[in-house]
Design brief:
ABC transporter involved in vitamin B12 uptake, BtuC; 1% strand
């Protein structure tokens, strides 16, 4: 009987942790609508802004879930996205083809991600160590690309070239297609189960025959595709690119994944939908604080406090249940 009570208690606790982020998103949406009505704000226009701000983070964070599931993290995602967007813009200016631009963005992002994973495997280093080194290299590459190919401090794609696809529906279709592919791979193929197992206990996974290096490479490829799509959508939304393009994406992805209820340790409790729930929650929170006329400094402080609280709750819940890493 005692064992049954413990199992039932753990089941209820896990259920609460699964639905809490969704409940939080619904509460934030309710607050947003209430403040919008009280302050007589144009709701359709505000919703369009929320989608435009969220969709890029959702796409990048969805791919990053594959890396975070393994218990690793990549802080170079924003820099990778900036380099991919710059090279994609250069490709368009040379060819005048949107298909070439999106293909170049994805290919560049995947190649950069592969370099990170291969370096980690060859030198047997933690993934985050190689991404720190890659962050510095990519920041230097951004300056070189702009200096060699830009006009002053920017690289620009003609606005009329992307105006036809700079729509909410186009961005939503890109996001939903990529999200659907990731859900299928993560939930219905053995790759997802293997990554959760390896993230929960990599040593046990290795002893059972799983190739952790191979899983890491595949995870980085999936993340690279998301970064490449995010780079393409960035050009679509803001065709004037600079060294500051996507500078906040790396941190936005981390915060979104945690806001969405995914444990920072990865493993079995990893969920693809965490990226969507977290990105939308973060954007709604930003919009609410904007309605309250709070400056950006206070907004960042509020996000940081919530981030720390969520991480603390997640870690304290898993200290006794997660297998030794």
């Amino acid at each position: 009987m005692d064992n049954e009570k413990i199992v039932r208690k753990e089941h209820v606790k896990n259920l609460i942790f699964q639905i809490a982020p969704i409940v939080g998103l619904l509460l934030l949406f309710g607050l947003f609508m209430a403040f919008a009505v009280i302050k007589d704000i144009n709701i359709p226009y505000s919703m369009k802004n929320i989608i435009n701000q969220s969709v890029i983070v959702v796409v990048v964070a969805t791919g990053a879930i594959f890396i975070y599931t393994l218990g690793s993290f990549d802080i170079s995602l924003g820099a990778n996205m900036c380099v991919s967007a710059l090279i994609g813009a250069m490709a368009y200016n040379r060819t005048g083809s949107l298909a070439v631009m999106i293909g170049t963005c994805i290919l560049t992002a995947v190649l950069i991600a592969l370099v990170c994973s291969v370096l980690a495997s060859v030198f047997n280093l933690p993934v985050f160590v190689t991404t720190i080194a890659m962050l510095s290299l990519l920041n230097a590459a951004v300056l070189m690309l702009i200096g060699a190919n830009g006009t002053g401090d920017i690289i620009q794609v003609p606005a009329e070239a992307v105006s036809a696809i700079n729509t909410v529906w186009f961005k939503l279709i890109i996001m939903l297609v990529y999200l659907g592919i990731c859900i299928f791979v993560f939930n219905f193929l053995k790759l997802g189960r293997q990554e959760k197992f390896a993230g929960g206990n990599p040593e046990c996974a290795r002893l059972t025959g799983l190739n952790n290096s191979k899983l890491a490479i595949i995870a980085f490829i999936m993340a690279g595709i998301g970064v490449g799509l995010g780079a393409f959508l960035t050009i679509t939304y803001a065709p004037t690119l600079s060294r500051n393009t996507a500078s906040s994406v790396g941190m936005d992805v981390i915060i979104s994944i945690v806001f969405g209820g995914m444990p920072v340790s990865g493993g079995a409790r990893s969920k693809i939908y965490s990226a969507v729930v977290g990105a939308l929650s973060m954007t709604l929170l930003s919009q609410i604080m904007l309605m309250l006329n709070l400056n950006s400094g206070i907004s960042q402080m509020v996000k940081a406090i919530i981030f720390i609280l969520v991480v603390f709750i997640s870690m304290s819940d898993g200290r006794k249940s997660i297998l030794p890493r």
